[in-house]
Amino acid sequence: MRLVVALATLAILAAAGTGADVLDWSGDVSVQTRWYPESPAFEGQRAGTAGFVAEPTLYADVGPRASVTFTPLHRYDSADSHRTHTDVREAYLLTHGDWGDNAWELRVGVDRVFWGVAELNNLVDVVNQLDLVEHPRDRPKLGQPMVHLTVSGDWGIAESFLLPYHRNRTFPGRAGRLRAGRPIEEDALYESGAEERHVDFAVRFSHAVGALDFGLTGFVGTSREPFFVAGAPSAPPSARDARWIPYYEQIRQFGIDAQLTTEGWLYKVEAIRREGARNLLGREEDYHASIVGLERSLYGLFGTGADLTLLAEWHYDDRGHRATSVWQNDLFIAGFLAFNDVRGTEFVAGILSDLRHDYRALNMELKRRLSDSWSARVETIATLSADPRDLTYDGRRDSFVGVGLTLSF
Amino acid sequence: MLPDRRRAADRPVEPRRRNGLSSPRQGARRVLAFCLACACFASADVRAQDDETPQEKGLRLAQEASARNDGFGDFTAAMTMVLRDRHGRESVRQMRFKVLEVAEDGDKSLFVFDQPRDVQGTALLTHAHINAQDDQWLYLPALKRVKRISAGRRSGSFMGSEFSYEDMSPPEVEEYTYAYLRDEACGDLTCTVTEQVPLDEKSGYSRKVVWQDTGELRTWKMELYDRKGSHLKTLTLENYRQYLDQYWRAGRQTMVNHLTGASTVLEWTDFQFRTNLDDGEFTQTALRRVR
């Protein structure tokens, strides 16, 4: 990781030194605060937190068809030392060209990749690790070291990824909310002897044929989703302080995602088969999981300029109560109201209902631009109903109201 | 007020113009003369033919205007959008635009947003189709996500402005029915006034009334009527410049909303034609590396 950053820095300095045609800074700095009105479920958890996050991007052209991008992120959180963290989201060299009637593109370095069509979660999206401490709903991702080659033409887009390093998922610390009952160890265990240096591979073929966009994906390597093994702390050995240690298996995953876009409706599906992962009981179990979604947009609502988008997604995992995912049989229904005004005001409301357990959560969010550079966001994620049998139970008292002010430059 | 569509169509055919050219050969010679003279405003009509109905004349003018724009190949441009509400409060948008002409189909185009800063790097790719739904993809840089979106929101506001998506996309001749209404003076020029009725039910307009000068067939003004038939908006175009000795582009477009009192001014700059853009710059892969 450090090597990649050093290389990226060097490349950027080289670009600056050779007088790159384009060299620009852009990005966001936000001040954020969250308030958790309910008393915490676990000792040490705080009622509120404040902090900031900065995510600048430096971009430089280093040739006619080559560029370097560097995007570091730093978050400071007043309550949770684990949420205070630094990451390199992007540090890559991009070059592209033509190859007969086809086009190629090569990205080398740290980058983020998005696969999928659903809104709540993307089953097929396995290249990057989640940066879980950032936001429970937005689910931003940690930068992933990779060599990413794309070849595209009239026949579609073929991508291959070589992933030489595994990133550990981030987890809240002892003082943080939205965490598991037991603290989670920062050092992880791996099934592979090569540990985090195991080289993973991924491929994707995607194409747009008329109204249909689809992707076929494959992944072989270290799982991004950990299984947790109970571990005694190094010292002192008291049962109350027992910890979870993340354990990353070697998996194979095949995925398909598709979206049919008609004039009024979007039809979406994501499905995976994963082999080699452990289920909640600690046994290896191959499984299927899927998401089926529908999206409908109503334009110019009630004669105003506002657009309303309604969304329904069903998330299913065939392991049922043995599923390690919180979405084993859940329905997500959301409405997205874009006022299309000068301020770009947007309101989102969504309800997630577990169809098997008695768990329901409400998500509401209001976003508005204050000026050309400043914008504000007010949000809440509230647990309406908690069920001890559900994996979300540890977060039952972590409903929150969050306010953020962002400066974009 | 303008007559409604039915009445316009029923109106007796305009008296034939005596200076009109009736033989095709003469017409061809005339076009050649036009091309050589280049800035020729000599006559007030374009190959007007005898016994033409207002519908035929409207269609012919639209086809002619479209034909004159054919062969531009590609161009890039920068655009500043100033949004003004009825209290005069302003807000500015900046974006870059590039478009590639596609033979026998709609154009491929790309918008990249630079301002407001919170949407910086967001890009909209459109593959327009004639008489079929356009394909549209949105790139969201924060997620690095390319999302296929429904092109059904034609009547929706573009970036919160008074321009709708429909107003931002180049019109295709086949998407309207036409009726020539009259000739009238527009500034120093003479304009034909034509009514256009969108065939697409998703269009936000019941009809458009378009003023085009008779020499170069540039559009100078457009009145837009909503689905209820009310005069919703007026678009005026100014600061025309000619590129490659053929293609006229307006430097300023002003859209006024008569219902809300709000307005939007588009200032186009840095037009560059035939910059050797190719198909590969209008793909999903290219969209992901947009700057």
Q: What does this 3D model show about the protein?
A:
The complex is a heterodimer of chains A (409) and B (291). In chain A, strand 15 and strand 16 form a beta hairpin. In chain A, 4% of the residues lie in helices and 52% in strands. Chain A is mainly beta and 409 residues long. Chain A is built from one helix and 21 strands. The mean pLDDT of chain A is 92. Chain A has an 18-stranded antiparallel barrel. In chain A, strands 8-12-11 form a three-stranded mixed beta sheet, with no helix packed on it. Chain B is α+β, with helices and mostly antiparallel strands and 291 residues long. In chain B, 15% of the residues lie in helices and 41% in strands. The chains are: A mainly beta (409), B alpha+beta (291).
Give me the Rg of chain A, rounded. Answer: 22 Å
* Total DSSP helices of chain A: 1
- Tell me about the largest β-sheet of chain A: 18 strands, antiparallel, barrel
Question: What's the assembly state of these chains?
Answer: heterodimer
Distance between the termini of chain A: 27 Å
Number of strands of chain B: 13
Radius of gyration of chain B over alpha carbons? 20 Å
Classify the secondary structure makeup of chain A into a structural class.
mainly beta
**Largest pleated sheet of chain B:** 13 strands, antiparallel
